[in-house]
Every structure is written in C-alpha cells, then in structure tokens.
Amino acid sequence: MTDGATSERVTVHRGVAWTAAYAWRLLVIAAALVALLWLLGQLLVVVISVAAALMLARALMGPANWLESRGIPRALAAALAVVVAVAVVAALVAWVSVSVASEFDQFGTTLSQGVDDIETWLVEDSPFNIDRAQLQDFRQEVGKRISSIVSSGDSLQSSAVLVVEIASGLVLALVVAFFVVKDRDPIVRFGLRGVPPDRRPMVTALGERAWETLGGYLRGVALLGIVEAIVIGAAVWIVGGGLVAAVAVITLLGAFVPIVGAVVAGIVAVLVTLATAGTTQAVIVAAVALAVQQLDNDLLAPVIYGKSLRLHPLVILLGIASGTALFGFVGALLAVPTISVTINVIDEARHPSERRSPPIESSASNVPDPDASGGSQA
Question: Could you point out which of 112, 119, 342, 377 has its C-alpha 20 to 30 Å from the C-alpha of 23?
C-alpha cells in the first residue's frame, strides 16, 4: 500500500497556469523591446538621419517626378530636387537669422520681464494669497532645472562631438534622401525579394499606406504651422508688441510638436506681448492664439490631414511623453509621425479591402514583381 501523501497528484489552478504561460512570453517580448530600444539609442544618429531622409524624400518625390516628366533623367531630377531643397532651406534660414538675430538678443530679457509682470499681478492684484518669496523660490528652482538640463554634458569635447554628429547626420540624410528619390522602385523590389510571393500585394499596400500617411502628416503640419505663425505674428504686430519675427518663427517650429509646441508658442507670444505692449494687448494675443489653435484643430486639421491622420489628444500627449523619455527632444519630434504611420499601417493590415491607397508617387505606375525581371537592378 502506497503512502497517500506521495500518491496524491498536485494540480495547478487553470488560471494560474494560464497566467504563468503568458507571463513568461510577455517577459521575453519585453526583453526584446528593451534590447531594440537600446540598439536604437546606440544608433540614434543613424536612426535620426534615416528618419529625416525619409521625410525629405517624401517631400521631394513629387518635384522629382515632375522634372522627370519633362524629360530630365531620373538621377539628375533627384539631384536637382535635393540641391534646390537645400538651397531654399539655406536661404530661408539665412533670411530668418538676419531678421531675427537682433530680436533674439532681447528675447530672454523680454520673457523675463513678462514673467516679472505676471508675478507682480499675482502678488499685488490677484485674488489669490501668494507670497512673493515663494514665487521667487519657484522661479529659481525652475531656472536651476533648466540650466542643469542645458549644461549637462556641456564641455568642449562634447560640443565638438555634437557638431560632428550633426554634420555627419545631415550629410547622411541628404545622401539617403537622394538615393530614395532616385531608386525608389529598385529599393522596393529589393525589399520585396525577401517576402513570399503570396504576401507581396499586402506588403506593398502597407508600404503605400505608410508613404501616403507620412506625406499627409508633413503637408498638414507645415500648412498649419504657417497659418498659426502668420496669424499670431500678425496679432502681436497689430497690438504693438515687439519681437514679431521671433514669435512667428517659434510658432512655426512649435507646430512640429503637436499640442505641446502650440501651447509653448502661445505662452511665449503672450509673455512677449505683455512685456513689450501691455496687459490688455497680451490678453488680445492670448485670445487670438486660442482661437486660431481651436480653428486649426476643429476646422483646418480635419480637411488638411483627413480622417486617417486624426489622433486623439491623449494619444498625442502620451506619444510625445514616451518619445521624450526614450530619446529626448528628437523623440518628441518623431513621436507623432511614427504613431500616425503605425496606426494607419495596422488599419490597412486589418481592413485591406476597405481602403486601398493610390500607388506611391514614382516615375513608374507599378512596382514590378522582383522575381519576374529587373530584380537584380536593386
């Protein structure tokens, strides 16, 4: 007769077994994601360059196609598109730098004066019981935090490394953009060679959806930024505020960081107007900034972006926060386009028959089967 204690079979509750089975799989997936993020961090210069190159290539594909349709060889058309884009951007930067340089010399002082005016109102005229010493301590603490962030790693060696990284990244981005514009079809054919033939139509559709989404995002953010910069800059100028060019430039750049950039640009515009024109004028600029941003979000953005690019503000804020935590300012800039492309690609994969994007802009209307002919051209 066997011992009852040893003969009893120990069983695990089904829920515990199910949880354990999925828990170790989730741990493996999390470890893989951490490793991927670490690798991206090590290759951040390359990642940023490739991302910038794809955005630039998406913007230049149309002009290059137009030049090719006029009889210019594809390689020359791509080179001309890149060179002209660089020349235009350099000219705009030079013009803005000359126009804004003198104003930015006063910018820090003006913002500080605006904050001083708000502090005086809070202490002397507001209905709140606020002590001036507490406000000054808070300002000093914020200033220390900002200074520590700006000065972290601020040395001659780190500055030289940063300059080299920026220069090399810029050159790499231009070269990659040129080849993407020039050899879009061969690159796509080369990528499709590793995909099973029965899945190539789906992969091509996903790529087209991602390419279209990126183009829509770039057009939308540029147009909305220009509208906000013109309207808010004009409002500051009409009420008699100073540093108009600086405010317009900051508003335009702020458009590339949705929600957060607009809020920061609006606060800067109000503080500048408060310091250079007065309280009533600052209130008017604040009202204009709120109105134009609401107009953009409710009326212009749906038309410019379309339904496929409309993201909930919470998704945008969480995406920007996550991108900033992982990769700093660059992560904040790339978070929204990355989320937009990802969501649209997933939507195309889940509902392939409900929506088909037009072919990717190219000199050829269709990308041929890489196994049929021309696959070696890649």
Answer: 342
Q: Which residues contact 255 (CB under 8 A, 6 or more apart)?
A: 221, 222, 224, 225, 228, 229, 261, 262, 265
Task: Output the pTM of the full model.
Answer: 0.65
> Rounded CA gap, 201 and 192, in Å?
10
Tell me the CA end-to-end span of the chain in Å, nearest whole number. 76
* Spatial contact of 320 and 336, defined as CB atoms under 8 Å apart: yes
**pLDDT-flagged residues of the chain (< 50):** 1, 6-7, 149-150, 152-156, 355-366, 368, 373-378
What is the pLDDT at residue 198? 83
In whole angstroms, give the CA distance from residue 86 to residue 52. Answer: 13
pLDDT digits (tens, 9 = 90+) for 36-84: 888 877 877 888 888 888 888 888 888 888 888 888 898 898 889 889 8
Other beta carbons within 10 angstroms of residue 52's beta carbon come to 20
Residue 68 pLDDT:
87
**Spatial separation of the C-alpha atoms in residues 232 and 288, rounded to whole Å:** 7
Angle of helix 156-182 versus helix 44-69 axis, rounded to 10: 30
Helix (H, G, I), strand (E, B) or coil at 84: helix
| CA 157 – CA 169 distance, rounded (Å) | 18
pLDDT of residue 282: 83
Do 233 and 255 form a contact (C-beta atoms < 8 A)? no
Task: Find out whether 226 and 252 touch, Cβ atoms under 8 Å.
Answer: yes
* C-alpha to C-alpha distance for 7 and 171, rounded to whole angstroms: 73
Nearest to 327 by CA among 36, 55, 32: 36
Cβ atoms of 356 and 206 within 8 Å: the answer is: no
CA–CA dist 139, 119 (Å, integer)? 10
Query: Quick one: pLDDT at residue 366?
Result: 47
